[in-house]
Amino acid sequence: MKLSVSLMVLFVCSLCGVKAQKVSFSEARSSSHTYVKGDDFEGVVFSKDFVLPFLANQPADKRFTPTAADIEAAEKLLVKDLKSVNASKLNQGGGNGPVIHECLNRFVRQYYGYITETGEKVVYISCLLKGNYRVSSNETPNWLKGAVVVLNGGSNYWQIQANLTKSSLFGLGINSLDKTASR
């Protein structure tokens, strides 16, 4: 009896292991982007008409505007799978910046949707450490206005792609840290 109760508790806990990631607020900020917020994340969703610098060669008919459901699915994948995808912890910890899967809620996101050549739906996610964007109360942070491109910066800036068709993450890229830049 004790074993069956323990197994039942373990089973229920495993079902609850991935917290539901829901968009609780969204607001169109322009025709090209919408602000979204959930309990553990916030970001900006770029429309299919926005050309992301990293994916500038993506044809217009292969881009889509991620929906709230798409963002929720991508966020669920981040929470569930980022730790295993990030096993090597490249350019993270110590002077390189935070270990990203240990503090996911400290990053704002920029979301961009595209369709692969094989028809798979992918959300490209660019993540930027929140504390690096302090502005006065009446000023809009750059990450809410358009794509932010950062060279270096360690794990304060990173990117990943969520394949919604396959329910998987791929293409994790952590910025390097140019130790000569401050000389």
TrEMBL record:
<protein>
    <submittedName>
        <fullName>Uncharacterized protein</fullName>
    </submittedName>
</protein>
